[in-house]
Write a structure and sequence with these properties.
Blueprint lengths: L3 H9 L8 H17 L2 E2 L5 E5 L9 H8 L2 H10 L4 H5 L11 H15 L4 E6 L7 E5 L2 E5 L11 E10 L4 E12 L5 E10 L19 H4 L11 H28 L11 E6 L6 H11 L5 H8 L3 E4 L10 E3 H7 L1 H17 L8 E2 L2 E3 H7 L3 E4 L2 H11 L1 H6 L4 E3 L6 H7 L2 H11 L3 H4 L12 H26 L8 E6 L8 H16 L8 E6 L7 H18 L8 E6 L4 H10 L2 E4 L11 H7 L3 E4 L5 H8 L5 E2 L4 H10 L4 H5 L2 H9 L3 H6 L2 H13 L5 H19 L2 H14 L5 H13 L3
Parallel strand pairs: 1-8, 2-3, 2-9, 3-8, 9-10, 10-14, 14-15, 16-17, 16-19, 17-18, 19-20, 20-21
Antiparallel strand pairs: 4-5, 6-7, 7-8, 11-13, 12-13
């Protein structure tokens, strides 16, 4: 190990102890780059290309130090010099290349692919301003550009790469790379990010995410998921997706040729995993390139591509299965539109069922294209896959039962224990040995379920995590959280189906209960985190309700000592790394049948939080693993929910009229409460919940309140609760992304 003091003297002419945190951070990033540059890419005849619209990487310094085997030594040297690695890492800029679970899953998967020594790279776009930076003003979300690119770039390269031909013009791409290091590996993989030559950051003002969406030649890589509430935005999405897949396809072909492919055997050299439907146009683009640039017959090109592209479905929501007007694709790339027509004609010739056609009423169904012309369709939790097969994609399942499979999502332990919760990693090492770091097997903890020394040590780990979280919340939010508070957390994208509005209604119930004199035995701190899409009005209304409740409760001296509500501004991976280890309760309360999997549930479980949930997504598998008594479930079943939708028989107003529910919903429109917030937003949300409630928060609300109160009561038996924490951690190894990736490789990729 290089002595950091020598590096400091060389870089800055000063000893390590005299460096600022920023200088130490830059020095360590340079050390990582140097070590990483010396590693050769993982070799293999067949290479995986994991294409995703987003990669939510988080800060990379600690993770890279862990994977390089430098973490403990660096941490110790810094401490000897009076520096803290966690404070040094705070100076690192977090790449703004993703938003939610989809992007974070992609990042975990890249880590595991590298750790397992598989040849596989990620492919995406280099967004200059990410999704947006969230700021709260007057208890409402304000979306600002997240200008993360700067002097401390993690990006390497920037060479011109490919020409991308659109209908009316051609653009040039620029290729950047972020090295992806595997744990203990002597090779590396890469995240390949394409940018636009000529992209113009000045199109975006500093105080808004509004920009001219028609200036495609200058705006293609400015934002992740540009606002698609108008035609210009939707068309820009299609341009952006084609730019991504054209670059990906050209890269795949070029590298296959470099490795010895004659392209007729391309499927032996490359396999493509598309992460949701955003990259689906890679299928017709590969066909186009094989035809136009490599003189291959159409039928052969189709046959080759159909043997090398696999599709991961991440949603059951019909509106989230991308559909683009064929006219849009015509405007972006007539060649691609023509190929899609030909591909659709082949399907129409063989299948009469209109439900399986690619083009329906002039609209291209991207999921249909991916299913017909791919080797695999996987769901991301057992329940999700079952619903796809039996309901949402049943017409396709009848045709291609062999293509459908489940790959329950996973998380990397490098990030979600070793990086964000070192005291827990140390406890696991001392209790189980270090093998769990590579095997993911934590079941040995069950032998210590009644070991008071281990349970006491686990309590100390949680107390330490809560201390770090309190410091983070104080510094970033000005929030003072009591040491003995229950930490109850719901962090995820703000969407009605995830039902943040139901937790908000519980908060109203709890507020009124405390006002009535029912003081809880200890303070309760409820923390939200997540962003709402700028065009998603109701989701922004939910944020406003939460923030207004936070202010209302904080201003009530009768309640404030006993109940706190916070929403983390600009929730990101860094915030997650502080909140998740500290959480006592993990809120996973989506409407059953609507959450494909979830991964926050796994991260919380791994760090000892107890799950409060509906039986949705991967919650079903968590419940099966930990057993009754170590998880709290409530709510209508997925079967019941599907029946209510099919029959159209859910009547929100009948639930609203129940006195106990009406009291809570009407609190939103209490004149005094509305005076503290936006009457327009609160009235609109009230009317939506009371009259529509599309994701049935009121259906489950009463049972949710009952079960939630039981959770808080059970928390007071500290010994029994510690045992629940241990059991959850012990079973979390099932959700290691190393396991998930091993299954992808064994069943789909076959990388050798």
């Amino acid at each position: 190990m290089t002595r950091l003091n020598d590096l400091a003297l060389s870089a800055y002419g000063r000893p390590l102890a005299d460096l600022s945190n920023q200088q130490a951070c830059s020095m360590l990033q340079d050390l990582v780059k140097e070590r990483s540059a010396a590693l050769a890419p993982t070799a293999g005849k067949r290479r995986l290309y994991y294409i995703s619209a987003e990669f939510l990487l988080g800060k990379l310094l600690t993770n890279n130090l862990i994977n390089l085997g430098l973490y403990e030594d660096v941490k110790a040297q810094l401490e000897d010099a009076g520096l803290s690695l966690s404070e040094v890492e705070e100076c690192e800029v977090e790449p703004s290349l993703g938003n939610g679970g989809l992007g974070r899953l992609a990042a975990c998967f890249l880590d595991s692919i590298a750790t397992l020594g598989l040849p596989g790279d990620g492919i995406g776009l280099n967004y200059h301003f990410g999704l947006f930076r969230q700021k709260f003003v007057q208890n409402q979300q304000l979306a600002l550009p997240d200008a993360w690119l700067g002097e401390e770039d993690v990006l390497v390269g920037g060479r011109e790469a490919f020409q991308v031909p659109f209908a009316d013009f051609t653009v040039t791409s620029k290729l950047y790379t972020i090295d992806v290091l595997g744990y203990g590996r002597k090779t590396k993989n890469r995240l390949r990010l394409f940018d636009l030559v000529g992209v113009d950051d000045t199109l975006v003002p500093h105080d808004s995410i509004e920009f001219d969406k028609r200036e495609v030649r200058r705006n293609l890589t400015l934002f992740l998921y540009p606002d698609d509430s108008d035609e210009d935005g939707r068309l820009l999405r299609v341009y952006q997706q084609y730019f991504m897949v054209s670059n990906a396809a050209q890269l795949i072909l070029a590298e296959a040729v470099e490795r010895g492919s004659n392209l007729h055997d391309l499927a032996d050299y490359a396999v493509v995993q598309i992460n949701d439907t955003h990259p689906t146009m890679v299928i017709p683009e590969l066909i186009r390139l094989l035809e136009e640039e490599h003189d291959m017959a159409f039928d052969e090109a189709v046959n080759i591509v159909s043997r090398m592209v696999a599709y991961t479905n991440h949603t059951i929501l019909a509106e989230a299965l991308e559909k683009w007007p064929l006219a849009f694709i015509e405007r972006v790339s007539p060649q691609i539109a023509a190929i899609i027509r030909k591909l659709d004609a082949r399907i129409a010739k063989n299948y009469d069922d209109p439900a399986v056609q690619i083009i329906q009423d002039g609209v291209v169904h991207m999921a249909h294209l991916a299913i017909h012309y791919g080797i695999s369709v996987n769901g991301v939790a057992a329940l999700h896959t079952k619903i796809l097969e039996e309901s949402e994609l049943s017409s396709f399942y009848r045709i291609y039962p062999e293509k459908f499979n489940n790959k329950t999502n996973g998380i990397t332990f490098r990030r979600w224990v070793m990086g964000c919760n070192p005291p827990l990693a140390h406890l696991l090492d001392t209790t189980l040995g270090s093998e769990w770091r590579t095997t993911g097997d934590l079941t040995g903890l069950l032998d210590h379920a009644d070991d008071q020394d281990v349970l006491s040590a686990l309590a100390d780990v949680k107390a330490d995590a809560k201390g770090r979280m309190r410091a983070f919340m104080l510094e970033n939010q000005g929030a003072h959280i009591p040491e003995d508070a229950i930490i109850d957390v719901q962090v995820k994208r703000i969407h009605e189906y995830k039902r943040q509005q139901m937790l908000a209604l519980y908060i109203i119930w709890k507020y009124l209960d405390i006002k009535n004199g029912n003081v809880p035995p200890r303070p309760i701190t409820i923390v939200f985190g997540g962003k709402a899409a700028p065009a998603y009005t109701i989701a922004q209304d939910i944020i406003h309700l939460i923030l207004t409740l936070s202010t209302w409760i904080a201003n009530d001296p009768d309640v404030a000592p006993h109940l706190q509500v916070f929403m983390v501004e600009n929730y990101n991976v860094t915030a997650a790394e502080h909140l998740i280890p500290a959480a006592d309760i993990s809120e996973q309360i989506s409407l059953a049948s609507k959450e494909a999997s979830g991964t926050s549930n796994m991260k919380f479980m791994l760090n000892g939080a107890v799950t409060l949930c509906t039986l949705d997504g991967a919650n079903v598998e968590i419940a099966d693993l930990v057993g009754e008594g170590n998880i709290y479930t409530f709510g209508a079943s997925s079967e019941e929910v599907e029946r209510l939708y099919a029959e159209g028989s859910y009547d929100a107003r009948s639930y609203y009229r129940r006195p106990g529910i009406k009291l809570l919903v009407d609190f939103m429109t209490n004149p005094h409460f509305m005076a503290m917030g936006s009457a327009e937003r609160l009235r609109r949300l009230h009317d939506d919940v009371a009259g529509k409630d599309w994701f049935m928060a009121l259906l489950d609300l009463e049972e949710y309140i009952q079960v939630k109160e039981a959770v808080y009561r059970d928390f007071e038996d500290r010994g029994a609760w510690a045992r629940k924490e241990l059991v959850n951690i012990a079973h979390a190894g099932t959700f290691s992304s190393d396991r998930t990736i091993a299954q992808y490789n064994g069943d789909i990729w076959h990388l050798g």
